[in-house]
Task: inverse folding
């Protein structure tokens, strides 16, 4: 497919524009995504900051709550100790030491039961028995009553007292009396290390001083009790304080913070959404304007390219027309050269033939009188009676005076006319060759004997070439070939004329034909000046000529090569400056072999 | 059999031509024939010919080459070239090297050819006793003559080149128009005229032809870019120009050519019999009239452009009298 400027430009530039638009779109989309990602990261970060803040707030509140209540519980425990210890607790504790717990602790673990840490029922019952014993102490009643009295209407829901063996020697919930807490972390901390510890617990049901309460948050504190006026730990208190209202308050505060955070969050998200939309809108505007600009650019470039294309096409047409005109004038020039040569060729036989005919006519005219005399004499002889004829010589003598002077030799006019006939034959041969060369049939001939055409061309070239140049025919046997004879004639006439023109003075042009590798090869070999290296690369170029302006069109070889190539052949040459040039034309036997697959 | 008028040699590679010429000319002349230049030269050495007729186009040796050799071997013989197709280079060679008497085109006229040959034979035989001084020294060296050379050329280059070529030993006149040339020629004693075939867009060949007719001692040399062989043939047949050189020319060529022309002029002046050898065919009366008109036009143009060699109101009359003095005496 031939190159078409406008189409190629359109395809290439539209492809590029589409690519540019696509790349821009992708980049813009990527930018949007990146922005969204950054925004959501920001949101996440903001969110986590808020959450962190809320959590820290909660934790701080809780910690404060714990420490506040722990200190409250410590105060409470001190109050108990100070007010009740000497009178109620000390004797009670001392008495409790009399109860043996080792027997209960010595009961074996129930390995077979599901919970390995679980206290075996026997042991539990053993400790409960201790509890009942404690309850049965006469000091218990007063103690219990005083504890209840002190705790009424306070936030303390339960009070327990452990001795240094870990036995629950008192509980406001009487059922828990006697329980063994020796392995409890809170007790261990308080009893052995003197540390107070608290924890927040939640109980669905809880037995408080004023009956059972439900769904409560409690702070339990294990507190070491020192004997008044000493650093001696004597018992451990466990105080349960109700912090449900505080926790509810805290939860309220936390919820308020969470709501504010959520509001902030949604506000941030809304702004982010709006920003994303704005950016998306901007991107669309940008893309739309880029597309419009690209379209404008394409339209103007398209107009320029189409105009350029028209100009190029017009120039090509002009060039083609000029080339055709030059080719025509090249043909006319070589024709003119040939006509001049042929004129000379024709003039020679014409000259002597014309002269001979005129001379023969004169001689024939001189025969008129003798023939008349002979005719009259013959008539008289025929009319005469007998063997004798009488002629009046005196009367005849003046009339017959010229007869004796006539050279009655007929061979001279015969020779003259014979030469004339030869001259006419020469002229006929020339006209025949001329006709064969210039025959106007442009058709391809299926079977043509190229030697015939070559002979024809050589004959005409001889009339054009200087007489000092000998043109030698060296024709081998050739198969009949398919070709356009009048075109090939033009090629060979051009090559042979070039060859003869390259010879100054005497020289020889050999026209040789033979078959060579399945092709017909015609060599035109001259003994001329050769082609200089500087000229050699240009000789087949259109309009390249070494002849004087007006003497050559510079198309001869260009056209020759075109014709040979149209026949599916090629022209090669070898040249040695000062020695000569040899042009070789190779032609396939079936021309246009590309159209006739073998 | 009566005595023939003279001896002639015909050379042509075409036997038909030779036989035909022989039949045509043998009644009046002794005719020998040769089918090539080489063969012809052998005959020239053996015989004394009055006239040599040769074809131009022959293999081996061309007609102009053959006639050049004939001129050297037998200067007395007048040379006639037969041409069928006019190759400019060959024509120039036969003018400058062969110094031919006439060109005859093929096919020739049956009445004219014997007449021209007869004329040539008569000229040659008239000189059979004259000393053979045909050859002008081709050395290109100038002798010490006091001749006048007229340059008829509309450009400034030619007189300058001529001055460079021959120095100031000779008077050089420069005419830029026909009228100026006529005035110089009618008033000065010119030996050699160096002319172009066209001056100021006017054809000069008629002037050159008429000059040779009326003043055959004038030697004419043409430097021109003219390339029509037929015009050059006419300049020989009707103008007997001595040399024709294609422009552009070099100083060396001008020197050689002008020196030979001056030598030729001297030879003619020393031996007026030679003039006959340069006799020309008469040009028609029409041509003379149109030349007169051209000269008058040139005079008017010269006057209008202030180019005339000498100022004066009666410029036209001057031109006419000059023309009359030159050609109608």
Result:
């Amino acid at each position: 497919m031939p190159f078409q400027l406008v189409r190629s430009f359109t395809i290439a530039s539209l492809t590029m524009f589409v690519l540019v638009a696509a790349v821009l779109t992708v980049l813009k989309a990527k930018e949007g995504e990146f922005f969204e990602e950054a925004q959501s990261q920001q949101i996440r970060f903001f969110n986590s900051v808020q959450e962190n803040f809320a959590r820290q707030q909660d934790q701080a509140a809780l910690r404060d709550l714990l420490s506040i209540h722990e200190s409250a519980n410590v105060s409470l425990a001190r109050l108990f100790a100070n007010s009740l210890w000497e009178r109620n607790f000390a004797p009670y504790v001392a008495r409790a030491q009399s109860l043996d717990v080792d027997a209960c602790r010595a009961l074996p673990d129930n390995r077979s039961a599901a919970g390995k840490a679980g206290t075996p029922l026997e042991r539990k019952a053993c400790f409960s028995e201790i509890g009942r014993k404690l309850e049965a102490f006469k000091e218990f009643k007063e103690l219990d009553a005083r504890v209840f009295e002190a705790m009424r209407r306070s936030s303390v829901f339960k009070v327990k007292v452990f001795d240094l063996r870990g036995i629950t020697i008192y509980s406001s919930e009487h059922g828990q009396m006697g329980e063994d807490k020796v392995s409890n972390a809170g007790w261990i901390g308080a009893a052995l290390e003197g540390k107070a510890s608290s924890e927040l617990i939640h109980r669905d049901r809880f037995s408080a001083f004023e009956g059972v309460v439900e769904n409560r948050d409690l702070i339990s504190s294990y507190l070491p009790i020192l004997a008044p006026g000493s650093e001696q730990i004597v018992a451990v208190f466990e105080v349960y304080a109700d912090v449900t209202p505080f926790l509810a308050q805290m939860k309220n505060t936390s919820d308020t913070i969470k709501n504010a955070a959520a509001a902030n969050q949604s506000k941030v998200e809304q702004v982010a959404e709006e920003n994303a939309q704005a950016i998306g809108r901007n991107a669309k505007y940008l893309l739309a304007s880029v597309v419009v600009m690209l379209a404008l650019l394409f339209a103007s470039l398209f107009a320029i390219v189409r105009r350029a294309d028209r100009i190029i096409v017009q120039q090509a047409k002009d060039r083609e027309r000029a080339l055709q005109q030059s080719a025509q004038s090249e043909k006319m020039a070589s024709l003119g050269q040939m006509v001049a040569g042929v004129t000379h060729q024709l003039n020679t036989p014409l000259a002597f033939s014309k002269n001979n005919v005129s001379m023969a006519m004169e001689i024939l005219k001189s025969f008129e009188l003798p023939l008349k005399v002979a005719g009259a004499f013959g008539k008289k002889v025929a009319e005469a009676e007998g063997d004798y004829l009488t002629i009046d010589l005196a009367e005849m003598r003046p009339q017959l005076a010229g007869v004796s002077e006539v050279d009655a030799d007929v061979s001279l006019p015969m020779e003259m006319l014979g030469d004339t006939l030869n001259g006419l034959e020469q002229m006929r041969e020339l006209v025949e060759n001329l006709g064969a060369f210039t025959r106007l049939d442009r058709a391809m001939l299926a079977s043509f004997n190229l030697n015939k055409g070559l002979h024809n061309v050589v004959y005409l070239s001889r009339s054009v070439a200087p007489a000092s140049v000998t043109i030698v025919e060296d024709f081998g046997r050739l198969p009949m070939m398919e070709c356009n004879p009048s075109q090939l004639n033009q090629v060979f006439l051009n090559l042979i004329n070039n060859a003869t023109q390259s010879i100054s003075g005497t020289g020889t042009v050999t026209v040789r034909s033979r078959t060579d590798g399945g092709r017909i090869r015609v060599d035109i070999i001259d003994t001329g000046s050769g082609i200089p290296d500087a000229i050699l690369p240009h000789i087949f170029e259109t309009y390249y000529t070494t002849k004087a302006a007006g003497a050559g069109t510079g198309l001869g070889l260009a056209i020759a090569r075109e014709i040979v190539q149209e026949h599916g052949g090629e022209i090669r040459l070898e040249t040695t400056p000062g020695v000569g040039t040899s042009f070789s034309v190779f032609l396939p036997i079936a021309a246009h072999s590309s159209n006739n697959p073998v | 059999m009566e005595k023939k008028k003279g001896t002639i040699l015909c050379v042509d590679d075409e036997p038909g031509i030779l036989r035909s010429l022989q039949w045509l000319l043998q009644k009046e002349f002794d005719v020998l024939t040769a089918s090539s230049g080489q063969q012809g030269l052998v005959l020239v050495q053996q015989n004394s010919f009055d006239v040599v007729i040769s074809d131009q186009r022959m293999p081996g040796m061309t007609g102009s080459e053959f006639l050049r050799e004939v001129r050297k071997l037998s200067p007395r013989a007048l040379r006639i070239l037969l041409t069928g197709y006019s190759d400019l280079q060959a024509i120039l060679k036969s003018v400058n090297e062969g110094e031919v008497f006439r060109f005859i085109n093929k096919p020739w006229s049956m009445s004219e050819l014997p007449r021209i040959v007869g004329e040539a034979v008569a000229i040659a035989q008239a000189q059979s006793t004259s000393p053979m001084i045909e050859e002008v020294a081709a050395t290109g060296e100038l002798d010490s003559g006091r001749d006048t050379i007229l340059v008829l050329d509309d450009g400034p280059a030619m007189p300058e080149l001529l001055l460079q070529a021959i120095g100031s030993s000779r008077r050089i006149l420069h005419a830029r128009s026909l009228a100026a040339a006529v005035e110089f020629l009618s008033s000065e004693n010119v030996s050699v005229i160096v002319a172009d075939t066209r001056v100021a867009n006017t054809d000069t060949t008629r002037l050159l032809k008429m000059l040779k007719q009326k003043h055959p001692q004038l030697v004419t040399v043409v430097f021109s870019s003219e390339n029509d062989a037929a015009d050059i043939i006419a300049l020989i047949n009707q103008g007997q120009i001595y040399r024709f050189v294609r422009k552009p020319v070099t100083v060396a060529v001008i020197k050689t050519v002008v020196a030979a022309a001056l030598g030729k002029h001297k030879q003619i002046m020393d031996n007026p019999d030679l003039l006959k050898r340069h006799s020309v065919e008469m040009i028609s009366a029409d041509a003379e009239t149109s030349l007169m008109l051209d000269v008058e036009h040139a005079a008017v143009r010269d006057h209008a452009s202030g180019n005339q060699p000498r100022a004066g109101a009666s410029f036209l009359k001057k031109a006419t009298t000059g023309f009359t003095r030159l050609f109608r005496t």
Observations:
- Residues 336 and 486 of chain A are 17 Å apart (CA to CA).
- Chain A has twelve helices and twelve strands.
